[in-house]
Amino acid sequence: MSISEKPNFPWFGMDIGGTLVKLVYFEPIDLTEEEKLKQGDTLRTIQRYLVRNEAYGETGVRDVDLEIKAVKLGDRLGNLHFIRFPTSSMYKFIDLCVKKNLHLLTFKIYATGGGAFKFEAIITKSLNVKWIKCDELEMLVQGIEFMASLNLDEECFFFKIWTTDSNFSNPFSMSQITNFPLLKANFDLQSKKFSDTYPFILVNIGSGVSILLVNSEKDFRRVSGTSIGGGTFLGLCCLLTGCKTYEEAIDLANKGDNTKVDKLVQDIYGGDYPKFSLTSDVVASSFGLMHIKDKREAATKEDLAKATLLAVLNNVGLLAKESAVSHNCEKVVFVGNFLKANTLSKKLLSHALNYWSNGKIKALFLRHEGYFGAIGSLINFALSR
Amino acid sequence: MSIDLTQICQNQNSFTESIELTQEAFKNFENANRVGIDIGGSLVKIAYSSSFECTTAFFSDPETNSNSIYSVNEVKKTVPTLNFIKFETKYIDTAIDYMKKNLNPLQATEDLKSVRATGGGSYKYKELLFEKLGIEVNKEDEISCLIIGCNFLLRHVPNEVFTINYDTLEYEFKPVQTGNIFPYLLVNIGSGVSILKVESDQKYQRIGGSTIGGATLWGLGSLLTDAKNFEEIIDLAEKGDNRNVDMLVRDIYGKSYDLFGLEEDLIASSLGKATRSLYDGPTREEFAKQFKQEDLVKSILIMICYDVSQIATLYAQIHGIDKLYFGGYFIHNCRLSMKFLKHGISYWSQAKMDCLFLRHEGYLGAIGAFLKTSQDLDHANFSWFENFAHSSTHTISRLKNDSNPFDRFELNQEEFKLVNCPLLDHENYVPDLIDLTKDEEARQYWLNCFEKTIETYEKQCIKSNTDENDQATLKRAGEFKKSYLNKLNELKKSPFAFGRLTVRSLLDLREHCMAEFQFFDVYSREKREENKQGLELLDDRLTYLENIQNIEQRWLEIFRGFLAGNVYDYGAQSFIEKQKKGHLEKFTQALNSIDESFNKTDSYSDLVHRIKSNQYKCVCIFVDNSGFDLILGVLPLVVELLKSNEQKVILCANSKAAINDITFQELVLVIKKACRVNHVLNDAFYKTENLVVFENGSASPCLDLSRINIDLAKAINFHRVDLIILEGMGRAVHTNFDARFKCDSLKSAVIKNRWLAERFKKFSKIENSHCIEFLKEDKFPVMFKFEKFLS
Question: Which PANTHER family does UniProt cross-reference here (chain A) (predicted)?
């Protein structure tokens, strides 16, 4: 296959979700002198702009820690860069592209996510690109498969949960989790080669949640999903605490105590409910104390954010576990940007699955959690003719 | 659910004003012998067993020198009742005061001294209950109480289960296989959500749950809106549009995207639009103001409904259960929640499962707590009916109207255990022909009809009393009328107030209202008079038939008579009018007043052919009116059946009075007299026992064949009934028109109602319905529907 048959640079893969746009950029490092000459100024400018910055405008971010060096994509060698910005800044992004003269180049972009549909018209009008829409789930699974094939250390990890306390039990047991450093369970982060994983349940937590059963790269389907996802967490946190960003919301949640907000079993029964194995510190109702004026006034922003996080996670955890049970899967892989910089959520989900399944079902996480759709698009682009 | 004590104390004053209402709510509490309590966060439910005394007619052989064929006396009868009341927690102190004052120490058994209580609030009131009532509260396990309550309602209360129509929001009542209620899932949406799998009375478990439940809506609603209580939150939600705050598939994709069958209005992320950007205003309040409170709570309500329905469907699939009942205060009368739960279940299960609700779901815990004290009162041995006169209407709004803070529901014990008619094809059996909750035209006609005829019944009530000018009687009759009209008005507003609205339920309601004001068997004297006349004419009629030599001719004459008798129906206005004019004094007039074309139908020829060829071993006849109907219409048919071969006949009559329908007691007395006239009857009744009589367990002109006297059911099996005859509009048209049997059946009636006749004609409901013309040439149309059992 000759180089001329390969798609022109720049190489992008995009995933335009409800909240965030994920962009993966392939920076070629094996360009011949001839190619460098041919490349021209525009392309060089763009490359410099993307690769040398860590933030773009007020909202764009390059996840430097996720960068992968010297990846072979097709027959080219290059670095993968991971960039994200809010979907609400999509129009600004297009303006920026025009400002950087990107519209003078002719190239192709492979895009997935709902935004691939929503922004198709405006993008093809503003830029001289061929816009290829890709199936969201296919890209997601292919992206994961590609990353697995790279066989990177530390891409996949899980929490080994161990405890010395025989009473330690319930994932709903929020008083334990509230005092997180003192949690009676210990979480050891362990890396794992992401292989021999099929079949698995893939839970993509973005604005909403999609749950897929993946039997192989080619054989997968959506088996469940819920509208209670990252968007719900952020929406409620914004409404309840006035926070402005996801990072702020997670930060608040990390410091909060949900038992000031949630109604526990002991608030209802005055103690345990042994007949149905509900211990007194189990959450019975999310926000269940907030109809009481005094409690409402006493609850802090942090408490409210924590309760919101737990409500969302409990629900996702439950659906993930039941999906795994009904499809006989022992592995649940959580991806999506909701988990970004969110160790608390990862531990909670690991803990919940471990407990609910008596250790049978394991929660796995991937470092490039939010970018698989974009990676999938990039691969399809790079391998296209 | 927790209790806000300060809130309760603030509201005590309002109670004194409603002392009369309290009395009404705690009806017969002075006879209470057992109590169960369920105290939740916003509502208290109390269950108690009690009894009241009612007057009823007792028939006996006539006193000597009496002109009457039998004498009618009054007797007092004690009717055991189960009472359930529900009110807001703020009334609890005064309710306890009322109970304290009215608790009869003589009635109070040991059981009453320790009350079973359930619900999150019950332990908080333990001391109050002990201090004031001197009763010890035994805390009962909440979940098992819910399940016991649910089992009881499913088995004992007709029309308990319904689902909601997503588009029209109308209730659709669903038949319940009372003998086969398990397994089911009970999804209780209280503060949180519990999903209970119930496999038998003893075997049940909590298989899952969710923390996102009723108190989540209540809590978030309190945080995000100005609503002061749960009801106000629901009211806000009713007005909201979630699409302004939810991130829809459309918002992400820009247009419909059907890869996974996702619709564009589908919610991708609940509250996903309510996110703030760095550029938004400085304060939380300013940000929150961008969204309408109504839209926010609507979004949360929908989120909860879809989440619960998703989890419930998932568990139902894993456990292979297709019956899902929903309960808990989140749902209580809230059509908005029901609508989205219904939609959720249908969406997640791909329309394979139905989302079922219970009319009395608010009482589950209290019923369960109560039944735990009453194990000796073996409830499996009794049947109950809902006393409409003593029960509140099930309203569509969550809030009770301000005029009455109490909701009550009363069951009265039937004298018999009622069971399915063994020959009934009871799968999907719905007794009633027309569901007036669904059929608006029919509803208006019948509500109007019952309203118009109320005067007739008021007059009859007065007339039934020995002293027609007695002031007290006039007052009572007036009260009966008022009470019935009130209920009719409520039914106009919420047609499903007592479950499925039908002609039968309207008739029952009238009987219950009459009984409420001590009017019973108001036609007993008229019935006796007509029975007397009928018996005087019986011999002639039988002789006349005997003398018809041509067998075909004789059967025709017998069935003409059988139908002509059915003209004598005091419940039919067209009959009353004709009778007033003196057009039906003689039986021959009745014979000439029916359309005879029925004998041209296949139904008729098939039936007569089968009877003539002695195909039947035992015929079971559900009779209708007393007097000419029974004596000159039915008895000649019975005689012919008994004598033509060795056939047996079972005659079934109502257990209690309804209009001029013959009651079992009257039937026995009449048969005894008839036996003196006819030796065939005499032999069959006294010697061979080829003629047996039973009471059917009913007190209605209509007949619910899923609730018949167990003794009759046994007899039907024992005598191997192979032909069932249902006679009259009530038993064969208003009910059982579509009933299917595991044997041959004849449904026959004289159509004495123009509206119904026109309906039959319009919808071609019956054979030769084209010739149904109401009172054409002054003749009543006839329904003669013989259905062969195809095994």
Answer: FUMBLE, PANTOTHENATE KINASE
Contacts of A125 (CB under 8 A, 6+ apart): none
CA–CA distance, B221 with A131 (Å, rounded to integer)? 44
| Phi-psi map region of B775: left, alpha, beta (phi>0 left; psi -120 to 50 alpha) | left
Cis peptide before B183 (omega within 30 of 0): yes
Q: Are B156 and B363 in contact (CB under 8 A)?
A: no
Q: Which has the minimum average pLDDT: B159-173, B267-281, B491-505?
A: B267-281
In terms of CATH architecture, what is B524-787? 3-Layer(aba) Sandwich (3.40)
B145, B364 contact by CB (below 8 A): yes
Contact A291 B255 (CB under 8 A): no
Q: Which residues on chain B are in Cβ contact (under 8 Å) with A289?
A: 2, 215, 219
ipTM of the complex: 0.90
Tokens linked to A19: 């909240």
Q: How many CA atoms lie within 13 A of A314 on its CB side?
A: 29
Task: State how far Cα B472 lies from the chain centre.
Answer: 31
Q: How far is CA B367 from CA B84, B363, B376, B502, B503, in A?
A: 8, 6, 15, 27, 29
B273: which chain A residues are within 8 Å (Cβ-Cβ)? 231, 235
Pairing of strands B782-787, B744-750: antiparallel
Task: Write down the pTM of the prediction.
Answer: 0.88
Q: Could you tell me which CATH number the domain at B438-516 has?
A: 1.20.1700
Structure tokens at A229: 């996802």
Per mean pLDDT, which range of B221-225, B381-385, B614-618, B707-711 is the poorest?
B381-385
Q: Does residue B504 contact residue B431 with C-beta atoms inside 8 Å? A: yes
Closest CB to B222: pick one of A268, A290, A310.
Answer: A290
3-state secondary structure at position B167? coil
CB contact under 8 A, A322 and B315: yes
Q: Which residues of B touch A86 (CB under 8 A)?
A: 277
To which H or E segment does residue B790 belong? Answer: none
* A322 CB within 8 Å of a chain B CB: yes
Taking the domain A155-257+299-366, which CATH number applies?
Answer: 3.30.420.40
B96 — pLDDT class (breaks 50, 70, 90) = confident
Interface test with B, best of A287, A316, A355 (most B CBs within 10 A): A287
Please indicate whether residue A136 is annotated as part of the active site.
yes
Q: A200-205 and A209-214 as β-strands: parallel, antiparallel, unpaired?
A: antiparallel
pLDDT digit string, tens, across residues B363-390: 998 888 888 877 655 567 789 999 999 9
Q: What angle do CA B568, B574, B577 make, to 5 degrees?
A: 90
Residue indicated by tokens 């749902």: B331
Residues of chain A with pLDDT under 70: 1-7, 163-188, 193-196, 268-281, 385
For B602, the token pair is: 């296949």
Which uninterrupted H or E stretch holds B153? helix B142-156
Q: Pick the more confident residue, B771 or B111.
A: B771
Q: What's the DSSP call for residue B449?
A: H
Q: In terms of DSSP H, where are the helices of chain A?
A: 33-52, 90-99, 115-118, 120-126, 136-150, 174-178, 230-241, 246-255, 265-269, 293-298, 301-326, 343-356, 372-382
Cα–Cα dist A184/A179, whole Å: 9
Q: How far apart (Å, rounded) are the C-alpha atoms in residues B497 and B478? A: 23
